């Protein structure tokens, strides 16, 4: 009797793990970097290196941001850079809404931490094999911060996620 329960327990665990991983089969890359003391300095670039071997699949690239209640703005400005294996760079200035017009945080989460999955690049085909470098830098400024020297409070983690486009 104990052996049967033990086998069922392992089988249930195996099936649960299989379902968990199969639901995420379109994920190519997913990594987060924590922001020290939840204060993101404008000079602090968050770097990711993605090794690409698939030059056929179409992917979407997301920037993931986790913020807490100490974030002071309703939007977020970022400078994102993608460097190809051959050294070619694409630099984008991005703006994302972080709160609605009533001041309610956008994103997922039931605690003080909200997670935002923000589109960066859609329908990308990485045409060259090799390492792609992604650098993300905050460029959010208050009205009185003309030189951009203030740190951005309340950002806890910055992530990069690449997913294959479902056909």
Task: Explain how this protein is built.
- By secondary structure, this protein is mainly β.
- It contains 1 helix and 10 strands; from the N terminus they run αββββββββββ.
- The protein has a 4-stranded antiparallel β-sheet, with no helix packed on it. Strands 3-8-5-6 form a 4-stranded antiparallel β-sheet, with no helix packed on it. Strands 2-9 form a two-stranded antiparallel ribbon.
- A hairpin with a 5-residue loop joins strand 5 (75-83) and strand 6 (89-97).
Structural category is mainly beta
What is the 3D shape?
Answer: globular
Give the integer mean of the pLDDT values.
86
DSSP strand (E) fraction? over 45%
By DSSP, the count of extended strands is 10
Write the layout of secondary structure elements.
Elements (H helix, E strand, L loop, with lengths): L1 H21 L4 E8 L4 E2 L5 E7 L6 E9 L7 E9 L5 E9 L16 E11 L5 E9 L13 E2 L1 E10 L3
Antiparallel strand pairs: 1-10, 2-9, 3-8, 4-7, 4-10, 5-6, 5-8
Salient structural properties:
four-stranded antiparallel β-sheet; 167 residues; mainly beta; 1 helix
Entry summary:
The protein is mainly beta. Helices cover 13% and strands 46% of the residues. The longest helix is centred in the first third of the chain and has 21 residues, at 2-22.
